[in-house]
Amino acid sequence: MSVSKYWREMPHRYRLEAGKCKKCGKIYFPKRHICNQCRGQDFENIKLSREGKLETFTIIHVGPSQFAEQVPYAVGIVRLKENICILAQIADCDIHSLKTGMSLKIEFRRVSEDGEAGIIHYGYKCVPSEKA
């Protein structure tokens, strides 16, 4: 897949776009075609906030081969202000000081790359908020 096609087909990932049902207001991330609450099919794009609270987390000690150099690292479920939960790596902190309920913010970072000349994959990671 070309780099430009890859970026075009993943707008929800890079811009944190969600779909909000125009009929009942339920928000979906990633976007859906049919609302499972009211069966509506008309959605508007909304941009999610980049702040949330840590719901739960785990520390990975034996990770997949592409992340082997990063172990140990933390992965957690973060509830955003729109009541949407996302799963993301938690970075830039002492993983042993993580606590449920702590404030986190989302930043876009390099996640992986396909070889030295391949596509660089970006995604979101969560870092502690300055006000935490």
Summarize the structure in words:
- This protein is mainly β.
- It folds into two domains: 1-48; 49-132, Beta Barrel (OB fold (Dihydrolipoamide Acetyltransferase, E2P)), CATH 2.40.50.
- The protein contains two helices and eight strands.
- The chain has helices at 3-8, 11-15; strands at 17-21, 27-28, 43-47, 51-60, 73-80, 85-90, 103-113, 120-128.
- The strands form two sheets. It has a five-stranded mixed β-barrel with strand order 4-5-6-8-7.
- A hairpin with a 6-residue loop joins strand 7 (103-113) and strand 8 (120-128).
- It is globular, with a radius of gyration of 16 Å.
- It starts with a helix and ends with a strand.
- The model has no long low-confidence stretch (mean pLDDT 86).
